[in-house]
Amino acid sequence: LSNVLATAIGPTLGVTLTEECGVHSFFLTCTAAGFFCVALEAMIRYEKKLPAEKRIPKEKPKIRLYEKSAVPASAVMLFVSFCSGSIASFVSLLAIARGIGNYKIYFMVYAGALMVTRLFAGRISDRKGPQAVLFPAFGCMAVAFILFASVQNLPVLLLAGVFFGLGYGIAQPMLNAIVMQSCGKTNRGAA
């Protein structure tokens, strides 16, 4: 939920701050936020001590850079993330170039679609398997790219955001789940 919230608020806030205060102020604000996050992280205590009878004896660790069984799903995730990063980076420039006003609302619509997927995709995947949701997700992303290529007004941009949010919101967690299921519990760090 925090990631979806950041997706909705972050880009809108960043664009607004850049437009109102300039790039220099934007980067100073991001730097301050980064230091604030480091300070917060320093206060997190997350290591849980297990009782002595539940501790797992430590074996000599194998150094493994990647898990072979995770490569196929990870490769797909690489391309899906590449698409997501490209859209997130250039949707503002696309909207400005096409003369679309009030484009900042795109990020909220996109985040709303991401949140909607959390309500149903996992349950459908549990009942029918990951392919039952992955293929429609990739279809939604393809429709979104067609819409991005032809966008000339705000409603089409928002519709592209809905399709892309649905597609990415389903594909990203499903592919992560497939990666985790494809390798043993001891190899998940390498996956």
Discrete helix count: 6
Largest sheet: none
Helix content: over 70%
Report how far the terminal alpha carbons are from each other.
23 Å
Low-pLDDT runs: none
H and E string: HHHHHH
What is the average per-residue confidence, as pLDDT, rounded to a whole number? 83
Alpha-beta content class: mainly alpha
Task: Please tell me how large the radius of gyration is.
Answer: 20 Å
Fraction of residues in β-strands: under 5%
What attributes characterize this protein structure?
191 residues, mainly alpha
Give the topology.
Blueprint (H helix, E strand, L loop, with lengths): L1 H20 L1 H20 L28 H27 L7 H24 L2 H20 L3 H29 L9
Helix pairs in contact: 1-2, 1-4, 3-6, 4-6, 5-6
What does this structure look like?
- There is one protein chain.
- Helix 1 (2-21) packs antiparallel against helix 2, helix 1 (2-21) runs antiparallel to helix 4 and helix 3 (71-97) runs antiparallel to helix 6.
- The chain is globular, with a radius of gyration of 20 Å.
- It has helices spanning 2-21, 23-42, 71-97, 105-128, 131-150, 154-182.
- It is 73% helix and 0% strand.
Describe this structure in a few short sentences:
The protein is mainly alpha-helical and 191 residues long. 73% of the residues lie in helices and 0% in strands.
